[in-house]
UniProtKB/TrEMBL annotation:
The chain crosses the membrane at residues 6-25, 158-180. Gene3D superfamilies: 1.10.287.130, 6.10.340.10, Histidine kinase-like ATPase, C-terminal domain (3.30.565.10). Its EC number is 2.7.13.3. It is a multi-pass membrane protein. It is found in: Cell membrane. It comes from Flintibacter hominis. GO terms for molecular function: ATP binding; phosphorelay sensor kinase activity. This is histidine kinase. GO terms for cellular component: plasma membrane.
Length: 465
């Protein structure tokens, strides 16, 4: 395409150049001949009685030789007196300039055009003619004609030479443009081909492929390569999360099912004695409930993931203090069962916020349930609500084991359970905080977690109504 554009440009340019150059050459030659005819006519008007004299003929021959033209001196009636090419003189006896040329010179004062002068010239030549005039008693009298001609072949040769130079120049430039565009196209296409090959490998499941060696290029290719690698990293992460999700789900489902199957078979085949059947059945019931919770959480997860990333959950105004209070009441038995206190620091009046009250109830329930589960016995759980910069900040704080710093960023991932909590949280499935994060993300809100010196707190935001 680039070579085609260059070729088209040169074609248009060459056409315009040739037309203009041809006109320029013809114009220059015409002006030169008219100028030389004027010199001869002006000189002859001063020595009109000496048209046949040797000095005047030498003068005419000099102009013809210098200008590479053919000069004819004729009488007023068109009869040719003599002609010269600057070297030789020619006599055209009984030859006359055509009447059309003579009449135009006498009537209009000049003649210019292509003509063979009625056969005087063997071919058509460019001719310029002026009259030789003298003033007698304030009257202008024509004493003769001066005709200056040039062989058209010399004009064509001059134009042909100019066109040849231009043609070869255009060919060289086109070759340079072709080579340069080919190299540039190959340079531009190489990273695109690599990206295409990498995309095909992605389709085959090879997610470790990256496009490299283009980081230093300050152009669109570098930006595209960077975006491509970012996409590849995202795809690899999604694939890793998918594999991990399947593995975690399989593990979480396998554990209770193995326990249930083992105790049921033990009861049926008599391996478990009758006095321990009740205890075994309690374990089966506990694992069944755990399996039910896992399935319920998975359904909640599927419902949340059905929302598109850019879709905000339908929101309404509700009283945040009322929601938090109801959650605390619903968890009262669990809190008192672990000998815990609750320190509530909330505004006395209603605190209206924007959000989905059912979803926020689940958020508060999961956070308070976690706080009650991991708080040290005999300590207090703090629930604090403050307002700042158009946001309501809800903080749930408990005293217990400190979560390692490298674990904090992982708390909100699916099926993640901190190492310190595995022995304490036999019933958890590692989806509670992930659901909290997903709900708040759909509401375009944030949640943060900190843990220092045994104090662990979670803080999430809601927009004030």
């Amino acid at each position: 395409m680039m070579v085609g554009i260059v070729a088209l440009s040169f074609t248009l340019l060459s056409t315009a150049f040739m037309m203009l150059s041809y006109r320029y050459i013809i114009s220059e030659k015409r002006d030169a001949m008219e100028r030389n005819a004027g010199y001869i006519a002006m000189f002859a008007s001063s020595f009109y009685q000496q048209l046949r004299s040797e000095p005047f003929q030498n003068y005419v021959a000099s102009i013809a030789l210098i200008s590479d033209s053919y000069v004819i001196v004729a009488a007023p009636d068109g009869e040719i007196i003599y002609a010269t090419d600057g070297v030789n003189f020619y006599a055209y006896e009984n030859s006359k300039v055509p009447e059309s040329v003579v009449s135009q010179v006498l009537e209009r004062g000049s003649y210019a055009g292509m003509t063979s002068l009625g056969g005087i010239f063997p071919e058509r030549r460019y001719l310029a003619s002026l009259p030789i005039t003298v003033s007698l008693n304030n009257l202008s009298v024509t004493q003769g004609l001066v005709l200056v001609s040039a062989d058209a072949s010399s004009l064509a040769e001059m134009w042909s030479a100019t066109a040849t130079i231009f043609f070869f120049t255009a060919v060289v430039v086109l070759l340079i443009a072709f080579v340069a565009s080919s190299l540039f196209s190959a340079h531009q296409a190489r990273p695109l081909n690599e990206m295409a090959e990498a995309a095909r490998k992605f389709g085959r499941g090879e997610f470790d492929v990256r496009v490299t060696s283009y980081e230093g290029r300050c152009d669109e290719i570098s930006t595209l390569a960077e975006a491509f690698n970012t996409m590849a990293n995202s795809l690899a992460k999604v694939e890793s999360q998918r594999s991990e999700f399947i593995a975690n789900v399989s593990h979480e489902l396998k554990t209770p099912m193995t326990t249930i199957s083992g105790f049921a078979e033990g009861i049926l085949d008599g391996t478990i004695p009758p006095e321990r059947e009740k205890e075994s059945l309690q374990i089966v019931v506990s694992e069944t409930r755990r399996l039910s919770r896992l399935v319920r959480r998975m359904l909640d997860l599927a419902r949340l993931n059905a929302l598109t990333e850019n879709t905000v959950t339908a929101q309404e105004q509700f009283d945040l203090t009322e929601v938090v209070s109801q959650v605390i009441i619903s968890l009262e038995s669990k809190i008192t069962g672990r000998n815990l206190d609750v320190d509530v620091q909330m505004p006395d009046e209603k605190l209206m916020v924007w959000g989905d009250p059912d979803s926020i109830t689940q958020v508060c329930y999961n956070l308070l349930d976690n706080a009650a589960k991991f708080a040290a016995a005999g300590t207090a759980i703090t629930v604090q609500i403050t307002k700042k910069d158009g946001k309501a900040y809800t903080t749930i704080r408990n005293l217990g084991s400190t979560i390692p710093k490298d674990e904090l960023p992982l708390l909100f991932e699916r099926f993640h359970k901190a190492d310190y909590s595995r022995s304490m949280d036999r019933e958890g499935v590692g989806l509670g905080l992930y659901i909290v994060k997903t709900i708040l993300g759909n509401l375009k809100e944030t949640i943060t977690a900190t843990s220092e010196d045994g104090v662990t707190q979670f803080t999430f935001t809601l927009t004030l109504a």
